[in-house]
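Justification of computing resources. Each target in the renewal requires a structure prediction run like the one illustrated here; the chain below, 186 residues long, is used simply to show the kind of job we budget for.
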Amino acid sequence: MKNFLLLTLVLFYSVAAQAQVKYEQEKKVAANEVPELSQAWLEQAFPAIKKAKWYKGVTAGKTSYVARFKSKGSRYSMSFSESGDIEDVERKVSLDKMPEYQKAQLYLGFSRLKNFKLMTVYEQWTASTSSDLMKAVREDDPTKATLRYTVEFKADIDGKNTLWEGLFAPSGQLLRKREIASSSNR
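Resulting structure tokens:
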């Protein structure tokens, strides 16, 4: 009984520790390998896009498709479920071009991290419905979506100085962090 309890605790803590690591495998795929729903959503949201690079990825056992492209001078990444439903839209941003309040709030969040070094920042747009997200994207209006920031950074966290991905609220609050075990093709 004592050994069973010990084994259960070891397994529990092993799983809990791994839950915060982002293991991502991604490979480039042809457009004809992507769900038609995903392609249609991209064409409606960004009708001027001539070419997107498509990827099929697996993160934490979940398969998704990602479209990466440029539009109006910005880099975008759109994630779709395996069935083709939109999950989120990310736009690479420079902190210099962010509103001062949001930049200050994010820096406040960063200041709590030891040996912090910023790598990249993406606005992450989500919405309760696909049509709400489509409207926000078509109007280029993040106020019509739920806005968060996906930030890739290096910092000392949990005794490790490594590459992390953090999801920050516009208030600067760190909502989630994951160690990046393999880099993606962003």
